[in-house]
Give the backbone structure.
Amino acid sequence: MLGVVVMALLSQMERSFGDVSDELTQKGIAAYNHGEIIRALETYDQAIQLNPRNAKAYSERGYVSALYGYDDDALDDCNRALKLDPRLARAYYSRGWVYKTNREFDKALKDFTWAIQFAPERVEYYYERGMTYMEKGDREKAMADFVLGDRFDLKVATDFNNRGRAYSSIGDTKRALFAFNKAIELDSNCPLIFRNRGLIFARQGQYRRAKEDMEQAIHLSPNFVDAYISLGLVNKALKDYREALADFDQAVELDPKNDRAYIQLAQILSTCPRADFRDGKEAVGNAMRAGELSEWTTSEYLTILAASYAEAGDFVSAIVWEKRYLARDDVSKADVAAARNRLALYELNRPYHQEE
């Protein structure tokens, strides 16, 4: 009799933990939607601790990890989620993100297709598969998926946001802007949408309007790291280097493992047209940190480190890193020509500075 009571209590506790774990998962999703990435990841961690069989929590944590470059963690989480629930569409979608960001397009397409099979009502899966086809160079199949996505009668802001992202990927800024505007009409409190619309304004050269959107995103979510990075890029385009440096510094403070923020700091500190904003030693530290965090997967980081060494007066190191950049097989012909010009400067013991 006592054993039956104990088993009943344990079962009740398990259900209770499961309910709390589900609630935490939803809170993690809400945190992500407000740009609070670190809080989202921490909340998913708590959900999984309470219920290690919460497939959705693994899937959502994997999705956020994939978006922010934590690929190994993302793959582990997605695979665990699929082991727990082989029909969980979101886990296929999240794992597809990892493959897509690593340019493993065939694997990504396979996972997005599985996601669509298990959740054909999710419009973002069609758009994401379409964007993957676009990156692979198959515009015809990309447009076919976008057409499928456009057939949905969208009702919520997140779906319009995904439609905007899709059309942004093919350079259709007019349709992308229309979608983002509609998303904001439906939800004027979502920082992600303001940030995405700001990117469109920036692409159009409307930097003042882009700045307004980035600032609104930060107003809505003060810990939105990507919004600070985007705002920094906009301020850089506006030649407000002091504000740009402050934006990237804030991004680093919020996320000390964000290589994109470090490399932007390094670029301004090493190549800024205005001497009062340059600091070679600081630039080298930031560029090296960015490279280490990214494991030197981004070729551009090599040439920015070279420029940083040159600004610091270490032209031997500048030449070494610029040559390493030139040796990469993913550098375009135009970038090779520019790099050779910079290398010629370093061989003359002269740093490289961008034009005003």
